[in-house]
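To illustrate the input format used throughout this study, we show a single complete record. The first block contains the structure-token representation of the backbone; no residue identities are included at this stage. The design step must infer an amino acid for every position from geometry alone.
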């Protein structure tokens, strides 16, 4: 007997023993009678299938028969033909501004102790504020309509020469060549230039009109707004308005971008073309005056300092914004921070617009998480004129709530007590003497607070 036959008999005997063992177990006979034929049929089917597969062409792959019952894991081929999706852009969160005001040692201001002057509501202050109007549609074919284009400011120097400039490079060159000292016409007093840097319109303009009323010849006004808004704002029919045709050729400004500093330099340059302007104050559309014009004028014209913050702050919101590419022109320990709402004299203004050393470095390197409007002028002042700064600003803002922007104030938060506290709630140094007149202006006040200011101005601020 061959080994093959012997192996077959052994398998048959093993199957017989398995059947006998199954029959001897104490279970119901009916399920066994059904299961045994099924098992035998399944086994015979496997044998038959293997025989058929073995008889196929020799090109069949080894193990192909087993893959019918034990298939390999499927191969994911969809990734080979699926179009690659573009990467999702990373979400960049702006660097938060410091939660508190700069240290008192740098600001030069001592606040009087006491509870906060205003009980702030938790509701969002923007409720009830309408969005800015859309730019007007201008019919180019009508000769009776004003063209929708930036309105150039016409300034007159001491010789009566009119200067209208709308090119930044030429503008900066003319302003850099302007005299560093005031050259007012005979019999004329030096003027204070009010530089308004706004997004759209000036909702507080009626309050400012009352502030300027009766003092023509002692001030100049320059307004930089969104380029699309210039035409509608400059088309005010009232020629006696302090803002009549005072919009300069403007360009788009982005928050935290170098374009903010470019707009500030643009305002300074236009104001420098009037040689009778002695002091320059930067304001926003949410600024309000806290004193009457004679007080503000005397305070600025007679000051021996310029009012700009310039302090060294460690951490992510201070030196952490410094860019190493600025070296060696600007080194880390020269880096300074401060509020963008400056006040400066004519000599410093000329130096700022003539700067071809530090500003190009800021323009090239101060981009992401740098905020040039908070660092360019403070750094420039610290390097070039550290002795000129008073170490404080004349604009009051509330940073006590933290975040990248100061607190905003609505109509119901403007009270007489609050305004009195803003006017005299602090002490500081002015021309070597201690005074309680530290802040001449305040922000950020929403447009719906205008009626309150118009009501309280004659009683508290002395004008209107």
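Output of the design step:
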């Amino acid at each position: 007997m061959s080994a093959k036959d012997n192996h077959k008999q052994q398998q048959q005997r093993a199957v017989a023993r398995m059947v006998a063992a199954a029959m001897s177990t104490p279970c119901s006979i009916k399920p066994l009678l059904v299961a045994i034929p099924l098992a035998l049929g399944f086994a015979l089917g496997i044998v038959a299938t293997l025989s058929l597969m073995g008889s196929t062409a020799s090109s069949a792959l080894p193990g192909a028969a087993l893959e019918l019952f034990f298939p390999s894991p499927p191969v994911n081929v969809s990734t080979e033909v699926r179009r690659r999706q573009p990467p999702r852009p990373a979400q960049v969160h702006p660097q938060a501004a410091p939660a508190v005001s700069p240290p008192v040692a740098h600001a030069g201001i001592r606040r009087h102790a006491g509870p906060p002057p205003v009980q702030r509501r938790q509701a969002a202050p923007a409720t009830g504020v309408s969005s800015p109007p859309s730019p007007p549609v201008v019919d180019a074919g009508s000769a009776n309509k004003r063209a929708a284009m930036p309105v150039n400011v016409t300034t007159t120097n001491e010789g009566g020469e009119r200067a209208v400039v709308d090119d930044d490079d030429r503008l900066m060159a003319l302003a850099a060549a302007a005299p560093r000292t005031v050259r007012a016409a005979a019999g004329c007093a030096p003027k204070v230039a009010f530089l308004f840097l706004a997004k759209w319109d000036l909702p507080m303009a009626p309050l400012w009109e009352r502030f300027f009323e009766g003092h023509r010849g002692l001030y100049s006004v320059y307004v930089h707004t969104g380029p699309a808004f210039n035409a509608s704002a400059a088309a005010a029919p009232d020629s006696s308005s302090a803002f009549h045709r005072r919009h300069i050729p403007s360009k788009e400004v982005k928050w935290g971008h170098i374009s903010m500093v470019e707009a500030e330099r643009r305002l300074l340059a236009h104001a420098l073309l009037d040689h009778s302007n002695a002091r320059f104050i930067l304001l926003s559309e949410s600024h309000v005056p806290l004193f009457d014009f004679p007080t503000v004028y005397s305070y600025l014209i007679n000051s021996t300092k310029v009012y700009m913050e310039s302090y060294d702050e460690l951490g992510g919101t201070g030196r952490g914004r410094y860019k190493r590419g600025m070296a060696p022109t600007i080194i880390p320990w020269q880096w300074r921070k401060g509020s963008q709402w400056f006040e400066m004299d004519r000599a410093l203004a000329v130096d700022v617009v003539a700067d071809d050393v530090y500003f190009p470095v800021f323009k090239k390197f101060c981009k992401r998480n740098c905020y040039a409007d908070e660092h360019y002028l403070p750094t420039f002042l610290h390097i070039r004129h550290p002795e000129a700064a008073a170490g404080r600003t004349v604009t009051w803002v509330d940073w006590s709530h933290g975040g990248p922007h100061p607190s905003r104030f609505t109509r119901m938060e403007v009270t007489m007590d609050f305004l009195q506290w803003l006017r005299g709630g602090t002490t500081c140094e002015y021309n070597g003497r201690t005074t309680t007149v530290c802040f001449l202006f305040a922000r950020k006040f929403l447009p719906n607070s205008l009626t309150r200011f118009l009501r309280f101005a004659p009683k508290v601020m002395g004008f209107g």
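Structural context for interpreting the output: The two ends are 129 Å apart (CA to CA). The first helix runs from residue 3 to 24.
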